[in-house]
Amino acid sequence: MHTRGGSSSRGQSGLGFGSRVSSLLLAMFATMATIYVAGRLWQDAETRLHLVEELDERIGQGKSAVSVDDTLKIIACREQQKRLSAVEMELAAARQAGFVSNKLVDKGDGHSKKRILVVIGIITTFGRKKNRDAIRKAWMPTGAALKKMEDEKGIVLRFVIGRSANRGDSLDREIDNENRQTNDFIVLDGQVEATEEQPKKSKLFFIHAVETWDAEFYAKVNDDVYVNIDALGATLSTHLDKPRTYIGCMKSGEVFSEPTHKWYEPDWWKFGDAKSYFRHASGEIYAISRALAQFISINRSLLRTYAHDDVSTGSWFIGLDVQHIDESKFCCSSWATGLFLSCVCVCVCVFVCVCVQTTTLLGRSHGRARKRP
């Protein structure tokens, strides 16, 4: 009995020792696991801290945090945009040069017609109906004759006007009524009719015209100018082989910095100490080729305007590969020097409204060309 009791006591002691060893091993493993996990967390925290510091340094030095791949993609995108702009200009030049239907445009019914030679926008404003009526009597066809000129000579004529600041008032209604009778207006709904808005008005005309008519040239004319349509058509036809042309009576006048002056230029300081405008076509009448009109349309939001529409138009072509053509026949004083039959235009007096016969109109306008910077 005594022997059995001693043996039982030793067995219990062995079991207790084994249990303690197992607990100790588990505790060791748990401690090691805790240390390992803590070490990894600490390493991750150090890595994040290092990345934050590196990012702060790069931002502080003005460097981009964009990856190399993203940077290459951005550069490639910019290059594609440049190529697209170049292709658009080349396409316009190719069309102008004749690679795409230079003379003939397919109507879709098996017939073809000549491309329009020129779209002429006659810049007018409210209260100038007598001027418009005088133009209609002197050199601008009306009704069926206007359409006949478009079909036979390829010359489109339209008066160009904006809207009243008080939309829908009597001024707008008068123009709408006149247009219903004559159907010879381009009404720029997005343009407020005001003297200081004249440069923007001319820009919107070119945009509207090039998006409406596929023509070789687009011309701007004031409503106090007598235009010799035949001479204009003949002159423009001699420049069909030139893809980017800017045609007019080229000049470079004084820049006036006095606010009280009639031709005051708010941005006078941009033209340098000499205070002279760059060479540009006189605003009475000038023409641009289709490629340049398309350039204006494409870049409309980037092209700024100055106080005068002719200066503004000339500024858009500085830096471009454009051929400036100083055409003496576009100078409104030419008829006063005897270039009666070949001249394109002549500036008329303010009483043009009472001139019905062409000879009377010419007699009144003889030698009365306006002068402006």
UniProtKB/TrEMBL annotation:
Q: Which residues form a coiled coil?
A: none
Any idea where this protein resides? Golgi apparatus membrane
TM region(s), chain numbering: 21-42, 335-362
Enzyme Commission code: 2.4.1.-
Q: Which cofactor does it need?
A: Mn(2+)
Q: How does it sit in the membrane?
A: Single-pass type II membrane protein
Keywords for the protein's UniProt record, in alphabetical order: Glycosyltransferase, Golgi apparatus, Manganese, Membrane, Signal-anchor, Transferase, Transmembrane, Transmembrane helix
Task: List the Gene Ontology MF annotations in alphabetical order.
Answer: galactosyltransferase activity
Which coarse location class describes where this protein primarily resides?
A: Golgi
Which top EC class is given? transferase
User: Which family does the entry's similarity section mention?
Assistant: Belongs to the glycosyltransferase 31 family.
What is the recorded name of this protein? Hexosyltransferase
